[in-house]
Amino acid sequence: MNLRDKPKSKITASRKLSLKMLLLTRACEDLERERQEREEEKVRYLGDKLPPLQMSGLSLDELQNLCKQLHSKIDVVDEERYDCEYKVGKHNKDIHELKLKIQDLGGKFKKPALRKVRVSADEMMRALLGSKHKGSMDLRANLKSVKKEDVKTDKVLTSEVGDWRKNVEAMSGMEGRKKMFDTGSGDK
């Protein structure tokens, strides 16, 4: 007998089916019993919290006092209900966040492939700012304009400064370095 061979089950298929049916009927009976217990608990709780009202033979002042008492009880119950709903919502949110953390730690969460989207500056500003964005944003309009006459005058000024070769010849050799040294030490 090989180790890879599985031993045959000693329970027949009909026996398995009958066991499943027994388990299902038992589960249904348990569910029905739990439902009845919840109903009985609800009736018992309401009997404790809300005694039967006896309004016959009460005067107008007593009826008003009874209404005020009932309103105060309703307020207390509403506060409790609100607190319970808030706690349940908070717990559900915490559970959701923990599930996301588990997915992140497991590494099974696949990030969707991102598409390249061409968006103009106006569309981007509209998406970011929403209704606050007014007008179109022409980036070229904000650039500094340069006149051609100004460029020509700048070229003329630079040519008048002098020839760079003359300056290099004056500073070449030991005399030029001595001049640089003397002007550097004279400033101090």
Commentary on this structure:
With 188 residues, the protein is mostly helical. It is elongated, with a radius of gyration of 45 Å. 0% of the residues are buried.
Q: Which helices and strands appear, and what pairs or packs with what?
A:
Blueprint: H1 13-49, H2 60-106, H3 121-129, H4 148-161, H5 164-171, H6 173-187
Give the helix proportion (percent range). 55-70%
- From N to C, what is the helix and strand string? HHHHHH
- The radius of gyration computed from the alpha-carbon positions, rounded to a whole number of angstroms, is 45 Å
Oligomeric form of this entry?
single chain
The description of the largest β-sheet is:
none
Please state roughly what percent of the residues sit in beta strands, choosing from under 5%, 5-15%, 15-25%, 25-35%, 35-45% or over 45%: under 5%
Work out the helix count.
6
The number of distinct β-strands equals 0
Short description:
The chain is mostly helical and 188 residues long. It has 6 helices and no strands. The chain has helices at 13-49, 60-106, 121-129, 148-161, 164-171, 173-187.
Features of this protein?
elongated, 188 residues, 6 helices, mainly alpha
